[in-house]
Specification:
Bound molecules: 2-acetamido-2-deoxy-beta-D-glucopyranose
Organism: Echeneis naucrates (Live sharksucker)
GO cellular component, one term: cortical granule
Radius of gyration: 36 Å
CATH class of one domain: Mainly Beta
Protein name: Calreticulin
Order of helices and strands: HEHEEEEEEEEEEEEEHEEEHEEEEEHHHH
Helix content: 25-40%
Distance between the termini: 114 Å
Keywords: Calcium, Chaperone, Disulfide bond, Endoplasmic reticulum, Lectin, Metal-binding, Repeat, Signal, Zinc
Family: Belongs to the calreticulin family.
CATH architecture of one domain: Sandwich
Shape: extended
Number of helices: 8
Length: 453
Amino acid sequence: MQALGVVAVILAVYCVNAKVYFREEFLDGDEWRSRWVNSKHKSDYGEWKLTAGDFYGDAEKDKGLQTSQDARFYATSARFEPFSNEGKSLVIQFTVKHEQKIDCGGGYVKVFPADLDQAAMHGESSYYIMFGPDICGYSTKKVHVIFNYKGKNHLIKKEIKCKDDELTHLYTLILNPDQTYEVKIDNEKVESGSLEDDWDFLPPKKIKDPEAKKPEDWDDRAKIDDPDDTKPEDWDKPENIPDPDAKKPEDWDEDMDGEWEPPMIPNPEYKGEWKPKQIDNPNYKGAWVHPEIDNPEYGADSNIYKFDSIGVLGLDLWQVKSGTIFDNFLITDDVKEAEDIAKETWGVTKEPEKKMKQEQDDLKRKEEEEKNKEQDTEGDDDDDEEDGNEEEEEDEEEESKDDVEEALSEMEKDESGHNSTWLGGVKCSEVGHVGVIGLSFALILVLMLPFCP
Ligand SMILES: *[C@@H]1O[C@H](CO)[C@@H](O)[C@H](O)[C@H]1NC(C)=O
């Protein structure tokens, strides 16, 4: 009985200890609008929509915030009672669903200090943590884990791949007071380690000794010329010689053509430049290794993980093709609690969601097959022309997709550029198309000029 009592007390303490700082599942219709503040920093931010999307596990529970306009920046945030994670774990968790087959766009959250001016939030607003998936083209498909330390943002040095399918996925970041971290996707660990190892927060522990210099007489040549090797006496031969087989042409006129000289040909006996044999250097000491010393700049810091006044969670991102749904936001100090809540929310709806998507895909495939069959039988009639047109249209669509892919990869290369410059890029390539057509017309007109009456 007593033992049971102790267990009960421990359980009670444990349960009371789990603290949920922020939880948002969008279960009360339009009320979210009173909790989330849209930034006014730009006038043309994209609109957020509350929806479960085209397929879902539960029509109500799966409602989340969806980006609804293509090629837009998005910026909204929600506030909670400020707290410090000192001496406690910090868990940041949410779900992301790129149901639109995303080409380029952020799927991450930013966690801000409580003093953030939400209405003025923008891309450069300073934050504590940025965490979550980011996709752009084929090559950027990663999970960002960025921490602000002493006013500077530090990116994780490891590459963590994110999900790039159309289903809802759960992203979890755990930050512990012992300065370790863990990243989970769909409640499974995908990366973990220590803050010091996986980010460059602190200067390196060791540096090259600035006092140490390679000794003057340090011989780091592994091979040297053989001093006993000498050039053979008969080595030097001219590179080119007069062709011995050449003969003065019969009709050569010395007065007119000058003195006849045979053409030069490469000398078969020419051996090139002489080089002595190479032998092992008896004085070779090996490569000189610069000795290292403790870096005087280095100072251990056991508070890298600590953020004093965590108070706002924000979505501040850019999306080319919109349709991403964010849901199930959670910030807590309890890893187990986060896991349990994940199981009760995402864990319950993910399978039915997958099934609904599967059914929709199957239906679409069947419809397409039917359509193709119809077209095949129609094709026997004499409306081939129409078919041809349709194919052309499809081709054009493919082409413009290529353009987008090209522009995307261009943008990735241009690290310094801003995302709005990418939009310019697309416009340019569209102008390019129109330009080519325009020029062609102009050319035809010019060519027709001579035929004008
Ligand atoms: C633009 O947005 C995409 C998607 O979030 C991101 O991957 C990329 O790094 C951004 N580019 C710039 C220049 O900020």
